[in-house]
Amino acid sequence: MSGALSGKTALVTGGGRGIGRAISERLGRDGARVAVHYGRDERAAKETVAAIEAAGGHAFAVRAELGVPGDAETLWAAFDEQAEGVDILVNNAGTNKAVDGTLQRIGEVTTEDFDHLFAVNTKAPFFIVQQGLGRLRDGGRIINVSTGLTRGAAKPELIAYAMTKGAVDVFTSTLAKDLGPRGITVNAVAPGAVDTEMNAGWLRGEANTEARQRVGAISPLGRVADPTDVGDVVAFLASDDSRWVTGQWIDATGGALL
User: Fold this and answer.
1) DSSP secondary structure string, 130-156?
2) N or C terminus of the chain: which is more exposed, having fewer CB within 10 Å?
3) Residue-wise pLDDT tens digits, 72-118
């Protein structure tokens, strides 16, 4: 498939579901060969690979659980088995939940919860980038997925999660300065609430109609975001059209912070 990213290789962490799947499929449609990373959901990753290939693109799955010792090494070893070098690295994988799967305010967060969130959302991207620099070609792209929670949309039940993404924001701007001489741009995309499987429990179905209307009303555009709304922003940052944009925090909340 020819397109703006023809001849490029992309790695999308958490690329099999939700926003990650939308990113993977869009990059695939733009011509990139996409490494769809997953931690546990092999079925979703393979479905995403199949969808990209059915649309005429090229993709392969890469497994590595993040947030555990040796995660970056495992990821790159799996990647190296199927590709040589990378042009676009999207740090999308993340979690906003504690170890027990709940959202927690400060009084409920344990040290285990705190360490888990930072291990997946902050430490993993840091070392994935660190160990990927030798594989990342000059003129490449690094795109980190942040959140609108770091710029004014504070939610007490997501305090530790927001802190992990605040660190990612600093990582983004500092890394942009460090890698600029190589022509590598580094940017962060910050979504708000998005209609994904992760949010299905409170955002989908008749029982959640009121919540969906309330969330949609936060945006001047009057609706809840679809994963493709974020994926298309990432595609711009992955393309040559964004060559003069680096170190930026891109608001992809649909104007929810206005």
Assistant:
1) HHHTTTEEEEEEEEEE--GGGGT---G
2) C
3) 999 999 999 999 999 999 999 999 888 888 888 999 999 999 999 99
123-133: average pLDDT: 98
Order of strands, sheet of 33-38, starting from the edge strand that comes earlier in the sequence: 58-63, 33-38, 9-12, 86-91, 136-145, 185-191, 249-252
Contact 227, 24 (CB under 8 A): no
With contact defined as beta carbons under 8 Å apart, do 68 and 93 qualify? no
Domain-by-domain residue ranges, the chain?
9-252
Matching residue, tokens 């994988």? 93
DSSP state of 226: P
Would you tell me how many other CB atoms lie within 10 Å of the CB of residue 245?
A: 14
CA atoms within 13 A on the CB side of 82: 18
pTM of the full predicted structure?
A: 0.94
CA 257, distance to chain mean position in Å, is: 20
Q: What is the pLDDT of residue 207?
A: 64
Give the fold, CATH level 3, of 9-252. Answer: Rossmann fold (3.40.50)
